[in-house]
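I have been asked to look over a protein record a colleague put together. The record follows directly below this note.
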Amino acid sequence: MVTQSRAQCVLLMGQCHGCVRYILFIFNFLLWLLACGVLSVGIWLKMDDRSSHYVQRITDKVDEEYQIKYSATGGDDVTVTLAYVLMFFGIVLIIITFIGCCGAVRENTCLLTGFAVCLLCLMLGMIGIGIWARVQQNEVDTMTMELEEKTNSNIARGVRNYFIDSRSKDFMDKVHRRFRCCGGRGASKDFYIKDSQGRVQRRRVPKSCLEQDVDRSCNYYYNRFVGDEIEDFLIYRYKVIVGVSFGVAVVLAIGVVLTILFCQIVKRATSLVVT
């Protein structure tokens, strides 16, 4: 009776052993594909040339000094750093999948244990990346000081050179018409010529201003327009990083559980055969 029960136990253990082994093989293949995907996302974030493209369509010339790039804020540097981190994780994960396959083929508990530990470390790392990217996503709207200086500088230069430089005139005319404003601080402060007592001596207001609200400042609206474009650009990239990081972390957690389960089955099967 004991022998029959033992034989059934060995048979059941063998079936579980084979089933989990094949599941682990399939998981390793899927994990390899996922690692290639993580590597691809990292490469895309690094090579995506949109960061060198211009935010606004107010200026169309390639060499236009008034153009502002998506990479005008420090936030783009953060996404590039995270891109390198994702590429590193992708390469490491590709290497680790081969360790997992070797451990499953040889049924080597040392290799499998090392595989599980590596997966656990990578899982914690991916969770850390996801949390970091999420925090950065929430702080995108605070990355505005440098951008505000750039946009205000553009407007100030455009006003200062409006009557002496065709590019400045073209830029400010487009800003005036798009945002229905005049100058950086309104026509009375930017285009009225006053004497030492503050009395208006001459009004030299651009024609594009006369079609709009001459007292409406352009600084805020231009800054908000460019800021919204950059925020959308960065938030999209952070969302991709968050989604990839937490998604991969879940898959790695499943891998840790499967590997530990297979290790226990191998140990149990070995002990039954020995005894």
